[in-house]
Amino acid sequence: MPKVRFKDIYIHFSDQGSGSAVVLLHGFLEGSWMWGEVVKALAPRYRLICVDLPGHGKSDCIGYVHSMDEMAEAVMAVIHSLKLRRVQMVGHSMGGYVALAFAERWPDHVKNLILYQSTARADSPSKKKDRDRVIALVKKNHASFVRQAIPMLFRPVNRKRFRDGVNWVKNQALKTPVQGIIAALSGMRDRPDREILLKFPPYPVHIIAGEKDPRIPLQESVEMSEISEHVRLHLIHGSGHMGYIEAPKQTLEALTTALN
What we know:
Elements: E1 3-6, E2 9-17, E3 20-25, H1 36-42, E4 46-51, H2 68-81, E5 87-92, H3 94-105, E6 110-116, H4 125-149, H5 156-161, H6 163-173, H7 178-190, E7 205-210, H8 218-225, E8 231-236, H9 243-246, H10 248-258
Parallel strand pairs: 3-4, 3-5, 5-6, 6-7, 7-8
Antiparallel strand pairs: 1-2, 2-4
Helix pairs in contact: 2-3, 4-7
């Protein structure tokens, strides 16, 4: 797995396929591993770069707070190392927050922005308090937190239906270091609202939403898609927050439609 030096740490990534460059950014407690089936399906048509964000996957931690902007800088380090000019960017959940931070800072490098079960809105005051509560739990017993948190990302009816997938994500997530978990939670808590980026974007914006997503309510995705004519909504029927497991076929169809 190739890597690039960034702020005295290494950011790991994969680079597969050929064609238009697409950067895939995973969510919280995930890693580049989440894109496995997507890469298999799309590599014949696209060059797919999957980045392990700081504190996740094989990438090291930078500090005790990983802001979305700092994570975006890490992504830029990868893009710069590959000498890419413009890329299509897909971000799942937290990865969407990072993609938005990247797009705000380097709009000329973005060809297409796809928010996959993510949001441009900042945390509400109650959500910020919840992040602090979770940080306290992680400090006490991060393994217990991970085991409880992962199933809650799935639609209740899908927790049994996709038991193997739930356990797979859980086992992968347990590899995330405590520092990486806390740093990401802190960064998500402190991120600014970026809905303004959806009003007059110099690139197409696509929102892929889970119909039954417990983290990003469908109504929120609908409202964001109505901000401007440049934003298009794609609905994954019956899916919770983990569409790549709960509705893999629909996820691929949505991505294929959204990608240039």
